Amino acid sequence: MQSTGGSMFKALVLDQVDGKTRSEIRQLEETDLPEGEVLVDVAYSSLNYKDGLAVTGKGKIISAFPAIPGIDFVGKVASSADARFSAGDEVILTGWGVGERHWGGMAEKARVKADWLVPLPSGMSARTSMLIGTAGLTAMLCVLGLEKGGVTPDQGPVLVTGASGGVGSVAVALLAKRGFEVVAATGRTSEEAYLRKLGASEIRSRDEMAATPRPLEKQRWAGVVDTVGGTVLARAIAETLYSGTVTACGLAGSHDLPVTVMPFILRNVRLQGVDSVSCPVPVRTEAWQRLQSDLDVELLGDLGQEIELEQVPDYAERILRGEVRGRTLIKLSS
Known about the structure:
This protein folds into 2 domains: 8-120 and 300-331, Quinone Oxidoreductase, Chain A, domain 1 (Alpha-Beta Complex), CATH 3.90.180.10; 134-273, NAD(P)-binding Rossmann-like Domain (Rossmann fold), CATH 3.40.50.720. The relative contact order is 0.16. The longest helix has 23 residues, at 126-148. It contains 10 helices and 15 strands. The radius of gyration is 20 Å and the shape is globular. 29% of the residues lie in helices and 28% in strands. The strands form 3 sheets. Strands 3, 4, 5, 6, 7, 14 and 15 form a 7-stranded mixed beta sheet that branches. A 6-stranded parallel beta sheet has the order 10-9-8-11-12-13, sandwiched between helices. It is of the alpha/beta class and 334 residues long.
């Protein structure tokens, strides 16, 4: 990585040494950044489960080294070659392979394609947007999926798995605000008070949900937001009410799905996959607008913690061990 001129900035850079991923805080220059129409002064990024896999090297997330991780960020446009954005505009980026195939948000500056950016919703602060971040956007897309599946509060309880994590926490808060009875499944039952404050009416242990289900179990859930995958998702599907909808957005437990077709053909259950990486801009815009109106901002203080760039490697290990509650913000500039 050769620096040839431009403004200096700090970044967390990943490289491979003897086949192992190593992270290092480095001073880079704007000319080091990849191509793109918009240069952004990054205010905040965040640490997601996928970022944890990238930083630790425990998942094949990064396609080429050296790389800057960070699958989301918020900041102000420093310069733009695209008429849609001007210097000073506040923008959000989530997905599009940023932090994977393209350098990401764990740096004080980022250069990206204009098509990947969404304006920061009016009335939402930069910090709030990253407390929401990719996790919150994904949670909102799951809620939209339940709504499009016809799930309403009067039909019965909604299950959220991995409820103590970033996606799960926001999903619990969003669903409770909309009047749903929310049952939170978590591997950290010590977080019961936290989850009840977000709006959960009942807490279930991960062990209970991870027990291998029969093809059909007792019907319990009008809808499900699943962030775990594997046997937990299989049990959730087997327990879903007739014509219920299950939204699946994660695989923290497993990418396997040991389920039969019986819930789908005998109970008319719908399994809706949720992708936030390549989600079209109009859908992203709708989701961010709904987050602005539907998410209780007062709860956000309980959803997150703030760290410095130098703390990322330690927190990356912790998030993979399931020790991090809610959202983790990375402060990069004021």
